[in-house]
Amino acid sequence: MSASLAANGLAADLVGRHARLAAGLRELGAGCLVAIRDESVTYLTGYTTMTWKMYSRPIVAVLTDASRLYVLVGETEGDAARLRIPGAQVRTYVEMDHVDAGGALPDGRLQFAPAAARALAEVLDEAGAVTIAVDGLDAAWPPIGQLTRLVPGLDGRLVDGSELVWRERLRKTPWELDRMREAAGVLERAYDTLGAVLAPGMTEREIARAFTIAQWEAGAHEVGPLAVVADPSRGLFGAPTDRVWERDELLYVDGAAIVDGYWSDFCRTFAARPVAAHERDGQARVRAALDAATATFVEGRTAADVGGVVADALGIAPGEVGFGRFGHGIGLRVPEPPSLHPADPTPLPDGTVLCVEPAVEHGGVNAVAEEEHVVAHGRLMRISPPAPAEIVAL
Question: Does 134 reside within a domain?
Answer without folding.
Answer: yes
